[in-house]
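#structure-requests
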Amino acid sequence: MAKDLHAPESDTEYTASLRVAEHMSANVQCVPAKATLHEATRLLVQHGISSLVAVENGHPAGIISERDIVREAARDPHGWAGRPVRDAMTHPLHVTDMGATVAQAINELARHRIHRLPVMTSEGRLAGIVTQTSLLRVAHRRLAAYAVDLERVVSARTAELRELERRRDDLVDLAVHDVTNALRDVESVLGATGNDSAGAAFVRRMSLRIGNLVGTLRDVTRLENASLPLSVQTVSWSALSESVLAEMGPIAQAKGVSLEGSGGGRAVLRCDRNLIERVVLNLVDNAVTIAPTGSVVDVHAEPGEASFLIRVGNRGSVIPADVLPTLFRKFRPGEEHVALERFVGSGLGLTFCRLAVERHGGAIRARSPYVDGEGAAFEFTLPIDPHHAAG
């Protein structure tokens, strides 16, 4: 579809394609510079025009307009008619040529602060005249046509992008559905065989991990297109954090990492519990993954008047300053993605965290080092009223 859509040239190129020769008035009359203003007035009336080119020694020398004559008549009501054109004309004379563009002529008029430009042929003959008003009117019409063309292209490409997004979302849903069904089949087979070996346990863990990954992929897509509604409720921070710590406790213990919760007390927050619990779980999971054996992962909460802050910190490697702004991107080059794994884990987890927090009207960031010149902290804030902030 895109190959049939051609974006219009820029507005400057659009007006630059207009030529003075196509929009000049050929009804231009000359008057000798020594002629009287009365004679000039008669010529203006006779030809129904507003200006004349004053000629001296066979060459254009200036412009005499209705306004110039009226000004002279107001200044000298009794003697103006007998005065020579030379005394009232605008000079020195500035001209343009047949090959000039409308944009060039407009710039020339503005540069010299004049209203008219005689148009000359390549042989030096007078071919016509253009005025500031007529050129601006032509440029306006062309720009209006440009705006219509641009709107057409933008509308068509927007429709195309929406269709591509719809197809992408359908493909993601289909992939998630198929993978989920395959994982259920694996679980059913393991359950039917009653296999409790270490290998079976490993397969179950990998199946759970794959299921979480495809679920995250699905939810990232829905959060991006705003098709995942918030189910906002009042949530006890202690209940939410205890659930996360209970789930991650065995994993942390197996690695020799301690989990320490602090702050929050009996505070409550308004949020979609499922989404925010998954955000905290993702951050704690990443922190445990990269934390050194024997270190501590902090899960801290600070209720405020307008927002609720949650921080997860680890004592792992320091994240380079130039990497911090890129952590929450959805896509990264292959080498960059591999290099980041030792700082933040892998997968779409941080992208999901950012989208879920922003869906609540909050913000998330990473800072490093965290404490004692080491580690990193991931912290996010949620507004007290997520419906109002996200709406």
